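During the no-cost extension, the postdoctoral fellow (Dr. R.K.) reprocessed legacy sequence entries with the updated structure-token encoder. One reprocessed record is reproduced below for audit purposes.
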Amino acid sequence: MTSHRILQLNAISTAACGAGMLAESVLWVVASAIVLLWFWADFAAVARFLVIAVALVVEVFATLQFRAAGRVSAAAPQMA
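Re-encoded structure tokens follow.
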């Protein structure tokens, strides 16, 4: 296997992992919204706030990780 092929496989797997992390976080946020809708009356006001806050924090971190992974991939030197 040539070094060029190894770099291509590494780039593909990195992109797939980044997309997977983002998809997982989006799923977390959507699931949080569903839980809030189904159990809104059962939650105290503080619990509602905490669920929303955690969902937003997860989404922000996922977005930042995805953007950072894109910057690292774009900034990496290209081999001929």
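The longest helix spans residues 3-38. The chain has a mean pLDDT of 81. The remaining legacy entries will be reprocessed before the final report is submitted.
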